[in-house]
Amino acid sequence: MALNIASGSTSHSAYNLRSTHSDVVERHTLAIIVDNEPGVLARVIGLFSGRGYNIESLTVAETDHQGHLSRITIVTAGTSQIIDQIEAQLGRIVSVREVHDLTAEGPAVERELALLKVGGTGDLRVEALRLADVFRARVVDSTLSSFVFEITGTPEKVDAFADLMRPLGLQEIARTGVAALSRGLKTG
């Protein structure tokens, strides 16, 4: 918005020198459709590392066997200007077919799978099983001294479960990273 000094009113102007981008750092989930060929993932990751952008989560898999297309889902954080730059730079990579900012495009469904190894005996073991039930985590392996739990949900749910398992004997955790789809009929 520019201030019209003569009338004291505000109006939209192409000469407005103020930034239209927010300086607030926000988490964004990007869905990138790429040709499934050697080196594509390295080029995408190289774009992030070469410019100092952090990747909080990364998943990739072939999603169209006949069309030889893969979907890369990246969770990153930045100001709206940085996210716009990332999208534009990704779009210039030859093997990239589509780039979608699922966060900006509207509601999306995000899920992550994690395996957590929790050691313990006695009351700690009973408490770990009780909490797993509350979080709908499944026991996928059990020994006399440990469990391996499988949990699926939002990254926040996985974090909360892991935080509760730490004092009960959390020994190891493996996470898949975020898989995400936009809600409704639109693709992304």
UniProtKB/TrEMBL annotation:
The keyword Amino-acid biosynthesis applies. It is an enzyme of class 2 (transferase). Pathway: Amino-acid biosynthesis; L-isoleucine biosynthesis; L-isoleucine from 2-oxobutanoate: step 1/4; Amino-acid biosynthesis; L-valine biosynthesis; L-valine from pyruvate: step 1/4. Its EC number is 2.2.1.6. It comes from the Bacteria. It catalyses: 2 pyruvate + H(+) = (2S)-2-acetolactate + CO2. Keywords: Amino-acid biosynthesis, Branched-chain amino acid biosynthesis, Transferase. Residues 29-104 form the ACT domain. One of its GO terms (biological process) is L-valine biosynthetic process. SUPFAM superfamilies: ACT-like. One of its GO terms (cellular component) is cytosol. GO terms for molecular function: acetolactate synthase activity; acetolactate synthase regulator activity. Catalyzes the conversion of 2 pyruvate molecules into acetolactate in the first common step of the biosynthetic pathway of the branched-amino acids such as leucine, isoleucine, and valine. Dimer of large and small chains. Belongs to the acetolactate synthase small subunit family. This is Acetolactate synthase small subunit. The gene is ilvN.
